[in-house]
Design brief:
Number of helices: 4
Number of strands: 2
Radius of gyration: 15 Å
Oligomer: single chain
Strand content: 5-15%
């Protein structure tokens, strides 16, 4: 839902609610990462690979919950992008091609 306040628009994204559905509120930050990846049209596989490596020592259940949470966040962000609620246009700049996001 978009709320117009002052000259800014706020979009209420239910990070905690999505996280609870995918494994627990602990995964809210991963849901947020998934949303951001979708808004920037980044490849979800990059995030999933990072999560798998980052949490491999905690076991497959933790890895799986992180990946599911990221995927649900990605789906939500993709919907925001596809329906025109949020549009981000970034032009490529070859001068900074070696920098990481």
């Amino acid at each position: 839902m978009i709320k117009k306040q002052y000259e800014y628009e706020f979009i209420d994204v239910p990070f905690s609610g999505i996280a609870k559905e995918s494994g627990g509120i602990l995964y809210s930050n991963v849901v947020a990462s998934g949303v951001i990846f979708a808004l920037f049209n980044a490849d979800l596989k990059i995030l999933n690979d990072y999560l798998a490596k980052k949490f491999e020592s905690k076991g497959s259940d933790v890895v799986d919950k992180n990946i599911v949470s990221a995927g649900k966040g990605y789906e939500y962000g993709k919907k925001l992008y596809d329906d025109g609620t949020v549009k981000i246009n970034i032009e490529s700049d070859l001068k900074i091609k070696e920098h990481y996001f």
